[in-house]
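Deviations from the work plan: none for this task. Representative record:
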Amino acid sequence: MSELSVNHLLGIKYLTKQDIDLIFETADQFKEVINRPIKKVPSLRDITIANLFFENSTRTKLSFELAEKRLSADVINFSASQSSVKKGETLIDTVNNILSMKVDMVVMRHPNPGAGVFLSKHVNASIINAGDGAHEHPTQALLDSYSIREKLGTVKGKNVVIVGDILHSRVALSNIYALQLQGANVMVCGPKTLLPKYIKDLGVKVETNLKKALEWCDVANMLRVQNERMDISYFPSTREYTQQFGVNKELLDSLDKEIVIMHPGPINRGVEITSDVADSKQAIILNQVENGVAVRMAVIYLLASKIKQ
Amino acid sequence: MSQKVLLNSKEVNITLHRLACQLIENHDDFSETVLIGIQPRGKFLADRLAQILTEEYNIKDIQLGHLDITFFRDDFRRGDKPLEANTTIIDFIVENKNVVFIDDVLYTGRSIRSALTAIQSFGRPKDIELLTLIDRRFSRHLPIQPNYKGRQVDAIDNQKVKVKWIENEGEDAVYLVDK
């Protein structure tokens, strides 16, 4: 069996197609495990993992924690709001203190892009990036691709549009890398103010008309409007954004095909998508959540297998 | 690398039939029994036994599953390469059933130890038996013995017992290979 080409998961940019295939094949087995009456395996009983969340998160943190516990790892949690970071401690000092407690792996979310890469050069532990600023969110992209593969059989050759706030979205960037690596055609769609200038350099199509984007695609990945990252107004009002870039049932019904609707969550119901779309059969949002645990179990398992005893 | 034939195709076939008959003696119509092939290589033996029981001894509705033990092994991170996970297919209830584990070679017993842990994720069997085509006695690390064995073999540590199946390697045979 092949093994991952990396010792850390810092971003999709550092992975190969073979890495992604390996993660998905392993996730298939873990998906079977988490549907058993007893959902736990003892593989990582000698591994300790620290979840360092320097930025708020609910679902990613829960998903990682569940994945770790189902692999029988020991887990410690840290959130910046309750820590000495507030007292001025540096990132390396914080992490080194935690690693002194014999931690093997660090899952880190940080508001600054590149925090994971920085850490991987300074500490002796396997690092998983759980989101670094507006840079990458690799496990989200992996679970998104895995969910597309599960729903449509393959990612290769599929047309996927990522709709919304591309500028602030680490999910968008990681998804673009992951989808392209697997041979999908990628389009981004959103207000011009929320499309980064460099975006065409990534080899994606750009569209500002949602109807046209939906007519082109097999899958629409709707991103959350990140109000917390908007230091200036990028569009006149939420109402206007919804009118131009929100997906509702009428819009979907007007298409001559059935597309798959995805959302990384949390959903602003009635903004990016309406409730009847979010709860429809076309939406695979809850499948994404379930797959998130299996994919994260696979990533943690494969990285842990490279930690020498 | 030299190799010696332990069982040829004809001998494998005779052995399989004998094992199938032994199973029938203890499990009758298999209504309370499930067969579990241990992945990756026990599944070939399990599939073959189920086929013989169904086609040649007219046992109906045999419940056959494949159990992957990768995540339950005790040598994770000890080898050079990561352990490869295989498929688990158990689409029936094992609770209160007679479970027969089926594997091609019983060597140290560690795989069976893992399988005993893994099967608990599917329920609490009434009892568990072990069937193996080859029993490498004197090699055990754990107190595990087979209930049914095709052939007992005395092999030293630098020898490997290799079981080949038509399904994946084009012939039914068992070899003793010097590593």
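Chain B has a mean pLDDT of 93.
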